[in-house]
Each structure stands twice: as structure tokens, then as C-alpha cells.
Amino acid sequence: MAFGDLKSDKGVAALDDFLKDHSYISGYQPTQADIQTFQSLGKAPNAKYSHALRWYNHINSFAPAERTSFPGGACPMKTAAPTTAPGKAEDDDDVDLFASDDENDAEAEKIREERLKAYADKKSKKPALIAKSSIVLDVKPWDDETDMKEMEKRVRTIEMDGLVWGASKLVPVGYGIHKLQIMSVVEDDKVSVDLMVEEIEKFEDFVQSVDIAAFNKI
């Protein structure tokens, strides 16, 4: 490795010294060079190596899938930091290319907040689950002279937001009398089953009573 054996104090110290003035191993964003160095390091540095520890925690905050998307980057050889003659003032035109610890911490916090916001936005866009029920109704006529086809026709004229009528059949109940058994699917928040039964029973020339034969949540 460019920093020597990162399993040794000497290697970690070299890395820490490099990161005093650098946010990342190569360039100004995380790259594969950071991942290679991170993996060679193996574990968090000792707290005395504060710059290396700060960098390690930042790289560790990325998920494995995010790390694979980092661009490539060359791992630089460790070089001695340039010295400044004692008493020489810095040139006013010099540009500080490296963020301070506080700036790096603020950047890491900003990235974390952006990820949380993106996750919350993605979650909020998921369609809400609509609770529905499957209901089978037994619609009983007055006698064997009731026009069952007309009775079913009247039942199906009932329209409600969230109500869908399904298949139906005539079921014998004795003495030549049949009841109408009809299926429906309703959205629980929109349709009142009691109201639906009341609406059917309004066809009093055809309907004697209405029972719920089956009620199942979908």
C-alpha cells in the first residue's frame, strides 16, 4: 500500500498524517482508492489518529452498494508535507483546498440528511393499501311467483363509489322458491354494508329480506 502496512501503527500514522490535509485519498470525492485503503485498514483506527478515524467513519457510513458505485481513483504515494520558512506569512492568494474537520463533519451530516430525505420521499410515493371485502348476499323473495330476473336487475341498479357487483346464482330454498345469491366487492372505507342492505330491501315488491351469507377481507 502507498501508506505502508496499515495493520501497523506506522502505516496508520502515515495515513493519519496524509488525511490532516486531505478529505479523501484521491481527489475531492470518495473513490475506489478510499475503498481499497478502507479495506486494507480493516478496522477503525485508534482514537489518537483523529484524522484517519474521521475519514474511516465517513467511508463506513456508505452502504456496500454505494461503495461499488464510487469512481476509480489512484492511491497517492506518501510524500512529506511542504515546509514553510519560519516567520513567512502565507500568500493572500493561496486557496485552502482541504476542508477542516468541522466542515467535513457538516458535509457528512448533510449527506446523511439527504439520504434520509430521499428514503422518506420514496416511501411516501408508495401507493396506499386499499382495504376491501368480498361479500355474498342472500336476497330472499316473497314467494315462488316473484320474478327473480327482475329482482336481480333491480339489485344491480344500486351504485355506490367503491361497490362492484359480481357473479350471482339462484339457490333453491324449498317449495319451488329460490333465493338470489349475489357476490360483491366493496372498499371498506367507502361502502357501508348496512346501507347496501337497506337499499336492496327498498325493492319491497320483490325482496322479503337480505342476509349476509359470507364476509371476507381481501
TrEMBL record:
Domain named Elongation factor 1 beta central acidic region eukaryote: residues: 97-123
Gene Ontology terms, MF aspect: guanyl-nucleotide exchange factor activity; translation elongation factor activity
Pfam family for this entry, one: EF-1_beta_acid
Gene3D superfamilies: 1.20.1050.130, 3.30.70.60
Family matches, as SUPFAM superfamilies: eEF-1beta-like, GST C-terminal domain-like
Keyword set, alphabetical order: Elongation factor, Protein biosynthesis
Coiled-coil region(s): none
GO CC field: cytosol; eukaryotic translation elongation factor 1 complex
PANTHER family, sorted: EF-HAND AND COILED-COIL DOMAIN-CONTAINING FAMILY MEMBER, ELONGATION FACTOR 1-BETA
Family classification: Belongs to the EF-1-beta/EF-1-delta family.
Protein name as it appears in the record: Translation elongation factor EF1B beta/delta subunit guanine nucleotide exchange domain-containing protein
